[in-house]
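Materials and Methods. Structural model of N-acyl-D-amino-acid deacylase. The 530-residue sequence of N-acyl-D-amino-acid deacylase from Streptomyces subrutilus was retrieved and submitted for structure prediction as follows.
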Amino acid sequence: MDLVVRGARVVDGTGGPSYTADVGVHEGRIAEIGRISGGRRTLDAHGLALAPGFVDMHAHSDLALLRDPDHSAKAAQGVTLEVLGQDGLSYAPADDRTLAGVRAAIAGWNGPGDDIDFDWRTVGGYLDRLDRAHGGQGCAVNAAYLVPQGTVRAYAVGWDDRPATGAELDRMRQLVADGLAQGAVGMSSGLTYTPGMYASGGELTELCRVVARYGGYYCPHHRSYGRDALAAYAEMVALSRDAGCALHLAHATMNFAENRGRAPELLALLDAALADGCDITLDSYPYTPGCTTLVALLPSWANEGGPEAVLARLRDDAEAERIRYALEVTGADGCHGVPVDWSTIEIAGTADPAFARYAGTRLDGWDTARRLLIGDRLAPSVLQHVGHEENVRAIMRHRVHTGGSDGILQGAKPHPRAYGTFPHYLGHYVRELGVLSLEECVAHLAGRPAARLRLPDRGLVRVGHRADLVLFDPDTVAAGSTYEKPRALPTGIPHVLIDGRFVMRDGRRTDVLAGRSVRRTPRTPRTRPA
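The predicted structure was written out as tokens:
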């Protein structure tokens, strides 16, 4: 054995009872579990739990993995795999025009990208870029990718609010198929973000049929988490049923005053669909506030035409007044149909240092919001304090639940979920509150996500599986990140391995770059039914 981990409490990712055993690692895989003698190296793990590496089912590290070889934001949490390309907007597939628009649209998620060499245009090219990041060494953790439907629509249709033509729909089908053939695990949508939100249900169904033929899954940020949340969830369930496509609901929450205490209604909807044979999973983060960009709250008509068109409308007093009225009086679709309460909107970060003083402050009204949007060229990110704890707990208990941080790493004061989601589950919701048992929680954070991604050799502590492992102290593990200090690292997670190599050892990040792209298992797509 290259390494023998001795005396660990093995929490294997199945949800079954934990047990004490040695775990032997050889050539990057788990080679033996039991009582093991010998080994080139040994690690005394008495008092520690050993679990499969955690899978962040909703990550926004698309540029961070290329920018930052350390990436302790995720590595220190025990995350060994992130799923990128979320919310329908990322950087592949794209041509030069599309890439410029997307970079501007999601600068609040990933930064403007001026420090990145965008030397790819395809999904396969982006995954290759991850593999040869940082001088060819790779990246900090593994990464899978979803074809972003909004980017695909921008590429084939543009940023206009109109139906796709037949030729444009064919082009989108081909772009999605190409991305899946090149290794994407599915397709994402951001249906409160432009231009993805301009797609009809029929258009989305056609694209999901392509996803289904390749064995991928559909991951929508659906049309409303506010006034029409239940109807929006029902639309996604019906769409996936019609397309015959597996469904994974992104950051499944029930937010705003309209939805307090209504999580059981969502879960009843899902239980009925599951009982009928639908393939559905979901992810959530263990916090009440949401996080997005300030521009995302605007009504969809204000975003039509792309970022430069948005800025032109904001500079026009009459158009800006129309936007304000939609936000404050009628409720913009970008704000989930609920009139905005500015006191719930906290600035997380800005791109321009001239506006850095606003980070960590609540907005005092539309005039300040408008000034920030124009001055920082749509880049401000925000926390939206609109969630409900009882809904958070009810959803995380569900049998198809998985963990996802939805972590935006940009800004002076990002949401603490970016640095704390996984230890917060283990420390607060397992040890302190008992909402989940330790074994159940690890299944939610590792075994179940790997099954959704159809990764046959990850997500479990099992002989033959990849040695992507995390060792933590169940009695002390906790998120260090808070709203005041959002980049503080967790405690109680001393060791993290990817392919049997230590990326965290004794609580410190090593210089190992063991992360690679994790691609959908190639297969010939199923023929469309007659």
